[in-house]
Amino acid sequence: MHVGPVTIDVDVLKEGLRGDVGFTSREFVEAFQYSLKAMRRLFNAKPNDQPFIIPGGGTSAMESVTSLLRKGDKVLVVSNGVFGDRWEAILSRYPVTVKVLRAEPGDYVSPDIIEEELKREKYTAVTMTHVETSTGIREPIYEVAKRVRSLVDLIVVDGVSSVSAEETKLENIDVFLTASQKALGTPPGAGLLMLSENAVNRLSDDSVAGYYLNLKNWLPVMRSMEEGKGSYFATPPVHLILMLAKSFQLIEKEGLENRVKRHARISQAIRAGIEGMGLSIVAKRPEAYSNTVTGVLVKKVNPAQVLQEMNNSGIELAPGVHPALAGKYFRIGHMGWVNENDAIATIATLERVLYKLGEPVKLGEGLKATQLQLA
Amino acid sequence: MHVGPVTIDVDVLKEGLRGDVGFTSREFVEAFQYSLKAMRRLFNAKPNDQPFIIPGGGTSAMESVTSLLRKGDKVLVVSNGVFGDRWEAILSRYPVTVKVLRAEPGDYVSPDIIEEELKREKYTAVTMTHVETSTGIREPIYEVAKRVRSLVDLIVVDGVSSVSAEETKLENIDVFLTASQKALGTPPGAGLLMLSENAVNRLSDDSVAGYYLNLKNWLPVMRSMEEGKGSYFATPPVHLILMLAKSFQLIEKEGLENRVKRHARISQAIRAGIEGMGLSIVAKRPEAYSNTVTGVLVKKVNPAQVLQEMNNSGIELAPGVHPALAGKYFRIGHMGWVNENDAIATIATLERVLYKLGEPVKLGEGLKATQLQLA
Amino acid sequence: MHVGPVTIDVDVLKEGLRGDVGFTSREFVEAFQYSLKAMRRLFNAKPNDQPFIIPGGGTSAMESVTSLLRKGDKVLVVSNGVFGDRWEAILSRYPVTVKVLRAEPGDYVSPDIIEEELKREKYTAVTMTHVETSTGIREPIYEVAKRVRSLVDLIVVDGVSSVSAEETKLENIDVFLTASQKALGTPPGAGLLMLSENAVNRLSDDSVAGYYLNLKNWLPVMRSMEEGKGSYFATPPVHLILMLAKSFQLIEKEGLENRVKRHARISQAIRAGIEGMGLSIVAKRPEAYSNTVTGVLVKKVNPAQVLQEMNNSGIELAPGVHPALAGKYFRIGHMGWVNENDAIATIATLERVLYKLGEPVKLGEGLKATQLQLA
Amino acid sequence: MHVGPVTIDVDVLKEGLRGDVGFTSREFVEAFQYSLKAMRRLFNAKPNDQPFIIPGGGTSAMESVTSLLRKGDKVLVVSNGVFGDRWEAILSRYPVTVKVLRAEPGDYVSPDIIEEELKREKYTAVTMTHVETSTGIREPIYEVAKRVRSLVDLIVVDGVSSVSAEETKLENIDVFLTASQKALGTPPGAGLLMLSENAVNRLSDDSVAGYYLNLKNWLPVMRSMEEGKGSYFATPPVHLILMLAKSFQLIEKEGLENRVKRHARISQAIRAGIEGMGLSIVAKRPEAYSNTVTGVLVKKVNPAQVLQEMNNSGIELAPGVHPALAGKYFRIGHMGWVNENDAIATIATLERVLYKLGEPVKLGEGLKATQLQLA
Predict the structure, then answer these.
(1) Single GO molecular-function term (chains A, B, C, D) (predicted)?
(2) CA-CA distance, A284 to D257, in Å (whole number)?
(3) Are residues B289 and B340 in the same domain?
(4) Residue D275: inside a domain, yes or no?
(5) According to DSSP H, which parts of C127-234 are helical?
(6) Which of C194, C227, C254 represents a domain boundary (last residue)?
(7) Could you read off the pLDDT of C123-156 as tens digits, one per residue?
(8) Which string of DSSP letters, residue by residue, matches B230-264?
């Protein structure tokens, strides 16, 4: 129940058990082709939109957005926490201007404030974090995108903790990025980006981007691979892409709609359990709840000790990393192949651990609330 | 017998079969720690030298060298082929000046020429490619490094196709980089760099580097991991590092000296076979031969057809990619866990394929030469 | 949560991923040697006692006991259910005489009755089933063995559903047998037997046994393997034994005492949940409870439907197979690597399934009882 | 290059990586069903013929033939070596009469002699070994079967080292048996038998067979499984059958005819190499050659030392086990997924090893003969 890398299905892992597969092999090219086409379906993309799968992860995918920026461009960063702030850390290494809108801990930046700022001043791009991994806060990205579409050239969404677990579509968005090791349920090693036609058209030699993370260099590879032809720019993570293709197969077997519903159902059950045992959630209001990450505030015990005890009981949770809430919370990840048993086992173990450590919880009440939510 | 990704031992692959391992897990941290310490031993490094393992591969490791460069720095690139030229392509995206010394196809840039240029003009850094993957040419890097040590601040070696298969040591070198999927025998997904103390001291916020490939950002992670403590900058390729640690174990079990000898022995046997059947090698003189890649010139047949037929017989070779020799050669990779049987099977199949396609070879003669070399 | 094959650790499964290992290979011989020595430790055996690992499973291990019987021998079978009765089915194919003592459903044959029968008439052997898989009933084998030790030549225990999960020792017992796929946590494919010195001495060409299941034929193989020397009688299940050795390693890491305690703790939690939700257990009194299998009686619903719905929720239970209770119960297996999360998830899902199917259960109450038992 | 267990494809092994699959699971039942149907196709069986897959291996499959014999039956055993003699060892444990016809070492029992004996005296059954694993001798079973069909009730063939590598069909044969770990390319753990309608009709409670290896007990399981319905008699080797189904898939993809041709081609190349380097083959005449096993006679060196040195070079051969030729030969197995590279590598290594040990061989000549045979 970590926020990522998540638990991975053995059927996915088995695809990596290949000792003799090169980047020109038929199997690899087919897996790459399948994955790109699956991305198109997942994001309900139009033919001129363009999927990318590049080595690295979420942060490298974020940095590759520099392929769309030119010297002097202005970027508005909408930050609900640590990973929102990361956009600023990345972009400040490049000759572009950055302004950050920050939310209060437990809340998201409201669409009104974003729209206002974009009306106030002209920006090339705005970035948003769909689900802020550090707190579990969800930004209403589709509403924002609709309202600011005409005000800004590029709308960029970090979907690292949302893609395939929250509503996923490229509508009004130019870059929707994620990483292999989150809700897609593959080991870490690749960043995935879906670009709108508008974004693809901005790829040029004049961007501020470097070489390896420059999407322009990867574009011909993506096009060849999607046509089923091998191509080389730099060595791709061959085994990982064999696994990723399997993950996409499993995702399509479940169906995006069912998948989002399942994540919603499990997250509700977990929140019910948390509240049932008498604890509070970091997200201050239901609109900010996410399907994938729940921040849990504790009153008395040390969150680090909770994580340690949970680990000893076989359940790995994630520490709280938002500086403003340091030492006050921990996080439960619930994405990928999570199911009802995971929710029940997590709440049961958490109850016992908190009880043992002296946090005032009533044994069995959180569990009952989760059970009633699931029934 | 590809130039990379190479054939991977199933014992290495099995380490990746973990569904539940996060980047804070004890097993991952221990695998990372072991790999960093193994790098120190492999390169015979001093305590203040610093190993790095970062996501990506050879090209990203090359680009991360920008972490050591400042605006306006001058870099001399010694290029023996496609991957030497890549340094120019990467560095030209950054505000540094680049000059390239290019070798004739089939030869390397002589130490005299390099020394002369570095005496003629002051450069911050010189880059060399230990074994040029595109042609199989080996540069005498240790001789060059010794001769130019006092003339230049940073001596950078691309050891992608050499580390652990050719003599490997940090002597007089500031950056020695490689990738997981070459002679180390792990799937692709990580770049590895060994930095001298001198290089580590140059890491600063003033470098021209971006964010994800900026070694300064990864330095605290490497130091924590080597101390056995988890740490986070961006999600590492967890499963890959579990596999890499296993590869290092196998490498240490064999011993570096034995490993280099084995590669030398197999490469000699392959060259004997090639010449025995009447073909020539791209490398023009024995000093340019490498232990890891052999370029093979054909007279009559189409190299692409040779590769296709070899593939049908279960042996994957690599195409020739040096533009000056386009359509005239193909490559045999012989790195990682190659053994005598691989050499024999490759030469045998190659003889039969070339014979069938009409190249003038004498059946059995190449094979006999390989056998006599091995006996 | 099946009664077997149980859930298997991926670390065990990975040991079978060997494409090139023959029955004379060092690794196989070492795995066999390790497994035999681990059996000695598990059963606290004396030097002249003898472990056997033979192809097949529980039934073949039972049949191999014919290696100790001669024409005309009399065997007393103590049967608490289907697998007790199996002794009669097996032995009736051989020229020996069999008498069966049968327990009431939900109970075991009392030590008094067994002792009385053995006093009344002279038998060569008595067989008991430690835990009767068909009902989850445990026989007090150590008490019986102590009381009848002087009355009978051979005391034989079927420990298929008990070894390593209930108290396991060869004390006063001549043959203690099990199968790889039960509490040992390895895939099915091998039967394991621990023979006392007394039993080993009875192995002779005069037995009624056939050839393949004749322990006399396997004895020299076992002795060679334990000395680390390859030996052949018939091809052993090579990959399975590599896995079995890993299972024994994991078992020794946990320790037998801890392992039995864990099974006891989980079985208590499951029984608490069953009773908490208002259902009854097949075993009529606590002395008959086992650590590994719980039979659950339902009042209203069809057990087959319960199993079907449980399966759909990802938890596989086992059908009731005792003819006297046909259609009235199902079974929960809790052996191998079961933990608290398994107990919680099983009870939670069972509650929801039974509730949905119309069995009168109070949602959350069984779960709470399990949680309190575990806290 | 062992005579079994043979080298196993990783795609087959991966199928066994299942931690949660029971013997009632849909996947297992489907794999069993597929395997049984594939057996029918492999043997070109008629609808009333019956395939069996039972735990164990070749020897247990042989012993299960007792299911067809009644007290007092007479069996003629045609033995070309160790595994022919094994029939006698097995059957002598049962109340039937056995007579053995033995061939000279290096030869097979001629059809004339068999026919003559069956005319001379009435036998219930005759057994033959298609390819005698201990020597590599092939018996002309189809000719014999045709000639003696009317003289005997049951014609039984041990196809352990032949099925799918030599011509495979049930024509005029009543029982054709093999084991999973031979040319089928699956790990050891199962015996496979194809029974004619005539043989199926003989299954009765009156047979001399025991319980576990009694085909009558397994018959309802085979019928249920083939209809896609789970069934239980004793726990089958679940994981092995998942792998076996994959092997059958790969076999059907290649096609039986191609598969037999490939085995023939590789065996010819190996024999050419052996003779090319100046050694002799155990089989005295070409009619006795098999596609799967070649016995190699040495003049000067100790075969055990040859095997040891081969092992050190990464190629496992098998010792000679025929008592009459003890210390004079070793065996090369070439079944399963053997290819041209295996033949070349085996001959090359063997040449070097024999040369090094002092056997008079001419380096490169055996290899050249193999190469010319393959070209």
Answers:
(1) L-serine-pyruvate transaminase activity
(2) 70
(3) yes
(4) yes
(5) 141-148, 197-202, 215-226
(6) C254
(7) 999 999 999 999 999 999 999 999 999 999 999 9
(8) ---SS---HHHHHHHHHHHHHHHHH-HHHHHHHHH
> Are residues D98 and D211 located together in one domain of the fold?
yes
Q: Is B17 on the interface with C (CB under 8 A)?
A: yes
Does B136 have pLDDT greater than 90?
yes
Q: Give the pLDDT of residue D1.
A: 77
- Does C205 lie at the interface with D, CB-CB under 8 angstroms? no
Q: Identify any residues that bridge with B191 across adjacent strands, giving them in sequence order.
A: B54, B179
Minimal-distance CA residue of chain A relative to B311: A25
Does C17 lie at the interface with B, CB-CB under 8 angstroms? yes
Are residues C265 and C213 part of one domain? Answer: no
- Same domain? C353 vs C229: no
Q: Name chain A contacts of B180, Cβ cutoff 8 Å.
A: none
Cα dist from B81 to B92, B173, C42, whole Å: 17, 21, 63
User: CB D14 to CB A14 under 8 A?
Assistant: yes
Q: Is B312 inside a domain boundary?
A: yes
- The answer to whether A371 contacts chain C (CB < 8 Å) is yes
Residue pLDDT, tens place only, B197-238: 999 999 999 999 999 999 999 999 999 999 999 899 999 999
Other Cβ atoms less than 10 A from the Cβ of D37: the count is 15
| Residue of A7, A93, A346 to mutate for B, most B C-beta atoms under 10 A | A93
The helix/strand/coil state of B177 is strand
Contacts of A355 in chain C (CB under 8 A): 375
B35 and B123 in a common domain? yes
Which ipTM value was assigned to this complex?
A: 0.96
Q: Where in the sequence is the domain holding D212, given as residue range(s)?
A: 10-254
Q: The domain that contains D277 carries what CATH number?
A: 3.90.1150.10
Looking at the fold, whether B92 and B135 belong to one and the same domain comes out as yes
Count the domains in chain D.
Answer: 2
Q: Does D363 touch chain C (CB under 8 A)?
A: no
Is the residue at B3 inside a domain? Answer: no
CA of D14 to nearest chain A CA: how many angstroms apart? 7
Considering the domain architecture, whether residues C82 and C163 belong to the same structural domain is answered as yes
Are residues C232 and C366 located together in one domain of the fold?
A: no
For the segment D71-118, what is each residue's pLDDT rounded down to a tens digit? 999 999 999 999 999 999 999 999 999 999 999 989 999 999 999 999
Q: Which of C226, C254, C282 is the last residue of a domain?
A: C254
For chain D, the residue count is 375
Pairing type for strands C329-333 and C293-297 reads antiparallel
